[in-house]
Amino acid sequence: MAFARGKHSKAISDRSGLEFPYQEMVKEWNGSLVHMSEYESKHPQLEPKPRGGDAQGLQNARPARTEPAVASMLLANPFTITSGSTTVSVNELNHGRSTSDVVVFRNVDGSPGGVAFTVFEDSNGYSITVTDTNNYTFTLGATPTVTEKSGGNTVTAGPVTLTA
Fold it and tell me: What class is the 72-158 domain?
């Protein structure tokens, strides 16, 4: 089959429906046959360039949080006890505590000052009075009968409630 060609051949534009010389016709990106004056190139938004994600998230991010209160290990024999006085001095290096904080003691060995260890390990704790950065005092519920520096090697001091 032979097709028309030459200066007298005509074609109909798919866009406007008008007749134009065949040699002036072009094919658009969508397959339409249109005259050169009607030609529209493909819009760049129809073929977007691939882009990676926005760099706004952090890999392995961790939110800011408040550290829970934990018990701190005291030095060996942290209690200084005077016979007949209910005030007990506690040695805890750089304790960071304030007067009126409540402290609970755990793992008290033996009977410091002649008082049962269970008195020191009161689950309600003791309100303290800070004397310096390494020492504070509290009032014991029983009266010691021996003057000594005692308490054991594994005594801990911490908040009334420990969070796991």
Answer: mainly beta
